[in-house]
């Protein structure tokens, strides 16, 4: 006798690695990549691809389709104004091997949006770190040795007029972040819905 697999059950157990984030404008991504190349030697760490540069708001981890749908519905109910983000800080977390660009004084809207998304995720059973939210863009990974940080950042700014749900996909030795859905801030138009 041959066992057949119930396709519905397989679909229900399929997990996706998801996170909410702010996308960086393409021009800003390219500016950051150039600035990083000018300020860090190749041995400093593994550079993040320009297309993968983003500011994480809430990491969700491995999520089922049903839980993802609930989180997307909750995100769609968020009503908040857009805000400006200035990347004017830089740091190195040797324990996790991350070199990052961040905000010295994050805008209140950014902190509120991250808190809302993290709270919704926690209530839906997605583990949230007890560490305080530290808005940042990861520049390099694998930076476990001491690294000379530039005395000054490039002080890049961008307008956050939407936030997104991304899926992290690892294939052919590379990680790619695919947009699942986008929600506007401050009355902006909805930009993308993959569903």
Q: Features of this protein?
A:
195 residues, alpha+beta, 4-stranded antiparallel β-sheet, 4 helices, 25% helix, globular, disordered N terminus
Explain how this protein is built:
With 195 residues, this protein is of the alpha+beta class. It has 4 helices and 10 strands. It has helices spanning 7-13, 26-39, 65-76, 108-123; strands at residues 15-23, 46-47, 54-64, 83-87, 89-93, 98-102, 136-141, 156-160, 162-171, 174-184. The protein has a 4-stranded antiparallel β-sheet with strand order 3-1-9-10. Strands 2-7-6-5 form a 4-stranded antiparallel β-sheet, covered by helices on one side. A hairpin with a 2-residue loop joins β9 and β10 (174-184). It is globular, with a radius of gyration of 18 Å. Belongs to the 2H phosphoesterase superfamily. ThpR family. Its EC number is 3.1.4.58. This is RNA 2',3'-cyclic phosphodiesterase.
What would you say about this model in short?
Its EC number is 3.1.4.58. The chain is an alpha+beta fold. The chain has helices at residues 7-13, 26-39, 65-76, 108-123; strands spanning 15-23, 46-47, 54-64, 83-87, 89-93, 98-102, 136-141, 156-160, 162-171, 174-184.
């Amino acid at each position: 006798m041959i066992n057949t697999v119930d396709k519905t059950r397989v679909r229900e157990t399929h997990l996706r690695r998801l996170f909410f984030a702010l996308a960086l404008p393409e021009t800003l991504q390219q500016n950051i990549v150039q600035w990083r190349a000018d300020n860090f030697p190749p041995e400093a760490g593994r550079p993040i691809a320009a297309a993968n540069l983003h500011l994480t708001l809430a990491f969700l981890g491995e999520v089922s389709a049903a839980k993802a749908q609930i989180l997307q519905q909750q995100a769609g109910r968020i009503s908040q104004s857009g805000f400006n983000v200035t990347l004017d800080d830089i740091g190195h977390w040797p324990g996790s091997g991350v070199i990052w660009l961040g905000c010295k004084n994050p805008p209140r809207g950014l902190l509120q949006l991250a808190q809302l998304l993290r709270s919704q995720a926690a209530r839906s059973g997605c583990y949230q770190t007890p560490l305080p939210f530290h808005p940042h863009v990861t520049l390099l990974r694998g930076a476990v040795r001491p690294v000379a940080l530039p005395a000054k950042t490039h002080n890049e700014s961008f307008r956050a007029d939407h936030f997104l749900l991304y899926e992290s996909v690892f294939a052919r030795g590379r990680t790619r972040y695919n947009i699942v859905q986008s929600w506007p801030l401050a009355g902006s138009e909805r930009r993308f819905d993959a569903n």
